[in-house]
């Protein structure tokens, strides 16, 4: 299976605090990898390093054998292939739903407006927002905004999607609508790396679960092993609050 992401000996510090310590991880095409762990364990920093929203201090990150940390690499071109959905929705409040989704296609990919709109409408329909295509983005619920954010990322036809706690800012009753969209993407073969506190999602949808603690990958295995037979005491302690 083709390797989409390969991380080697990754290090990241903020001032004197080592947030990532010698991280090694790979993600294969079509794989769903969920990263779990306590707040402050380095999960989101690791995810943000993958597309260089945070610049590593040491180590290498390869996207399909292209070294993102090489200064000669055009990171903006590669980012077109790496979709990202954040905790906050990051929508443009002065634009409607459709315009939020077409902006990158027309500005970055230089696509014609009609073609961009057709792609955006297809993805918005797929995430259940066909009736909100022309809605003011400020009027949407949190779950709807996050689904727009997912559709917007998909419009760029990425080879991998990164999700950073995509449900953490949502009310519990609307979490499911976002997780359902993510599960559909997984079922369709989208390569995904998901930082999440949604243990049921990690258990049911992921191909592999990575448990991080204090900046290191403490354990990495199938969801079945992580959730039923974790090897490390710290993993067992963390999961005890969810199981």
TrEMBL record:
Organism, scientific name: Dielma fastidiosa
Pfam families, per database record: ABC_tran
Family in the record: Belongs to the ABC transporter superfamily.
Alphabetically ordered keywords of this record: Amino-acid transport, ATP-binding, Cell membrane, Membrane, Nucleotide-binding, Transport
Membrane topology of this protein: Peripheral membrane protein
SMART domains the record matches: AAA
Protein name: Amino acid ABC transporter ATP-binding protein (PAAT family)
Entry GO CC: plasma membrane
